[in-house]
Amino acid sequence: MFDLSQKWLGNSLEAWAYALALAVSINVVMGLIKWVIVTRGAKLAARTTSNFDDALVSIASRTKQILIFGVTLMIGTRYLELSDQIDKTLMAIATVAGFMQFGLWLSGAMSFWVEAYRKKNSEGAAATSLSAIYFMGRMVLWAIVLMLMLGNLGVDVTALVAGLGVGGIAIALAAQNILGDLFASLSIVIDKPFVIGDTILVDTYFGTVEHVGLKTTRLRSVTGEQIICSNSDLLQTRIRNFRRMEERRMLFAFGVTYQTPSAQLEKIPSMVQEMIDAVPNARFNRAHFRGFGASSLDFEVVYWMTEPDYALGLDVQQSINLAIFKRFEEEGIEFAYPTQTLFVQPQSKEPLHVKMAAASGGAA
After folding, report:
1. Among the residues of 153-224, which ranges form H helices?
2. Domain Mechanosensitive ion channel transmembrane helices 2/3: where (predicted)?
3. Where in the sequence is the domain holding 294, given as residue range(s)?
4. How far is CA 24 from the centre of its chain?
5. Which residues contact 331 (CB under 8 A, 6 or more apart)?
6. Do residues 167 and 65 both lie within one domain?
């Protein structure tokens, strides 16, 4: 049998056994807590709508028992009499393990946030930009963890921080256009002025959004070609998003002949309203005898489409046009078209010299 009173590195084997048992016990308890959160918590999270329990499961799943043991080993040996070298070594192991585990927990929280946001925003633009956010976020996170860890280990990180700052400024200046488009892409994803599938008008370019990347956004025009726009340029201009229209305003005009009686002119606005009210998805707004044209009496009509679809709007406009044409045909109202009336004054049959003599005599 072992003699537990024997000394090893200045402490009895019994003391070492107690220290190791304490370290392992704490590690086992942490493992049990992790198992309960991951297994039981996952089942509970599936039945709730809260994100807190899902986030807790994601963070707990990143727990590494070997890293926890590096910390608990230092805790267990606090009651032992150790040399400065061994004490510093254990402290360094615990510091590295603790900061690594802390970084994993923060990375798990970040990963959960990215995944949750990606599920709510399944379009390709969100996936692309969120991947970039996640990559940069992890780089920044582990850079901070590394500097904190080195600082706690006694390493002077002042020069490292200064070097990273200067290097970061140099990189930012060299890639400012790329970074501008990158942050513009993040703004598009977060603020959502448009998403994939929206039909937008940018300056004079009209098309449907096909892809939102880290640097460019691509539109498919109505004529078939692809339009590629810089993300930063998109945010600096005015964008008209047609997909988000709740209703579409429709305006059209027509003219009738000057020979139309005034009694019929007075009836035309009410006729048009009656015909528009009879067409589905159309809501009458106004109809007015607007003015006197060169060869027509002009009317202007405005109505609203309760559905903003452009093709449906054309179908409704066609139905209204046919109804107006048929009704005017029944009422005997004629549509005007460009015409000119020439008035000819009859010539006198007297010879020209007689006209001139009469004119000179009259003047005398």
Report:
1. 158-174, 176-191
2. 140-176
3. 248-331
4. 50
5. 264, 267, 271
6. yes
Q: E-strand spans in the chain?
A: 7-8, 11-12, 199-202, 205-212, 216-221, 226-230, 239-241, 248-256, 282-292, 297-305
* 228 and 280 share one domain: no
Distance from first CA to last CA of the chain, Å, rounded?
162
What is the CATH number for 226? 2.30.30.60
Q: Is the pLDDT of residue 351 over 70?
A: no
pLDDT band at 166 (very low <50, low <70, confident <90, very high): low
Q: What angle do CA 37, 38, 44 make, to 5 degrees?
A: 75
Count the neighbouring beta carbons within 10 Å of the beta carbon of residue 355.
11
**What does the alpha-carbon distance between residue 45 and residue 38 come to, in Å, rounded to a whole number?**
10
User: Do 196 and 234 reside in the same domain of the chain?
Assistant: yes
206 neighbors 221 (Cβ within 8 angstroms): yes
Residue 43 and residue 162 share a domain: yes
Q: Is residue 1 assigned to a domain?
A: no
Distance CA 188, CA 200 (A): 14
When pLDDT is cut at 50, 70 and 90, the band that residue 129 belongs to is low
Could you tell me if 15 and 158 lie in one domain?
yes
Assess whether 25 and 174 both reside in one domain: yes
Of 200, 295, 301, the closest CA to residue 250 belongs to: 301
Question: What value does the mean pLDDT take over residues 86-108?
Answer: 87
For residue 360, give both structure tokens. Answer: 């000179």
Residue 235 resides in a domain: yes
Asked if 58 and 109 touch (Cβ cutoff 8 Å), the reply is yes
